[in-house]
Design goal:
Length: about 290
């Protein structure tokens, strides 16, 4: 039961069928285009990632916003987020800004690109449910760069199989064909040496290397999983904090706890993976990597 609580804001969260919206509303379209227009007027050295993430602060938290009946389709929702849809929305907005593309159609193209394997919707299993898969696919296409995947970093051997081992929690996996497709995805991640910064290292020395706007993916000790929460790094009074869609605070919020204190309070977290959006490295004012 504790493992399921930990997953309430992750990609892997399931919910009752029909909660997600099949089509974006007019308010989503207007919000996206307004944010992209505002970003166009920012100073050149501004972190667009942090601008977009901060602009969504206060939006309600809602688990399982991508789960719905019927065929897999692109879900757009800017009025509520789980932790992963929050990160994906911000990444898609950042990409639009870097490309000089400012329409809602452009945003949907980028959201599809970051959410699905090779940017193509081809059923439930084409969605990048596990965050290691998400990082790999987006890094391969030049969208992000994982800074913690370096020689000499700590690695934890994981086999990603939580979804099929707990298929009853995922309505889509009731379909035998979808279940088999997810098994095939998971087979690619058997005995994966997952890189991460141990949380004690983050608190001792690594915080200085983390930039505002970096994606922080929290590695877990839960069997069958790699990452259980994601958000963005930001600084408050020079101290590193997490900007995230929080199930505890029920909204998108800058966590009141500094990152080190936040990590210490999460016993199932073993460390952090740091991922940088490539579109923001030219404008983050910190010289990129």
């Amino acid at each position: 039961m504790k493992a399921f609580c930990l997953l309430s804001c992750l990609l892997l969260v399931a919910c009752l069928p029909g909660r997600a919206r099949a089509l974006a509303g007019a308010s989503d379209s207007m919000r996206v285009e307004s944010l992209l227009l505002q970003a166009a007027g920012l100073p050149a050295d501004s972190s667009r990632t942090l601008f977009f993430a901060g602009s969504l602060a206060g939006a309600p938290y809602a688990a399982g916003t991508l789960e719905a009946d019927g065929e897999e389709h692109l879900v757009v929702c800017l009025d509520r987020f789980d932790c992963t849809t929050f990160v994906e929305t911000v990444v898609a907005l950042t990409l639009c800004d870097s490309q000089g593309r400012r329409s809602f159609a452009d945003f949907k193209d980028n959201l599809r690109c970051v959410r699905y394997r090779e940017g193509r919707i081809a059923g439930y299993a084409s969605r990048l449910h596990y965050f290691s898969d998400w990082i790999y696919d987006n890094e391969r296409r030049g969208i992000v760069d994982e800074l913690t995947d370096e020689p000499g970093v700590c690695r934890r051997m994981v086999s990603l199989n939580f979804m099929t081992r707990h298929a009853e929690a995922y309505p889509a996996l009731r379909s035998p064909s979808v279940y088999r497709a997810m098994l095939q995805v998971e087979q690619r991640w058997k005995d994966y040496p997952m890189p991460y910064l141990p949380k004690e290292n983050v608190c001792q020395s690594a915080c200085a290397d983390i930039h505002e706007g970096d994606i922080l993916a929290f590695a877990t000790a839960v069997e069958g999983l790699d990452v259980v929460h994601v958000g963005f790094a930001c600084r408050v009074g020079g101290e590193l904090h997490l900007l995230h869609a929080s199930s505890l605070h029920k909204r998108v919020v800058v966590d009141p706890l500094p990152l080190c204190a936040y990590l210490r309070g999460k016993k199932s977290f073993v460390g952090v993976r740091v991922v940088r959006i490539q579109a923001d490295t030219l404008t983050d004012g910190q010289g990129g990597r």
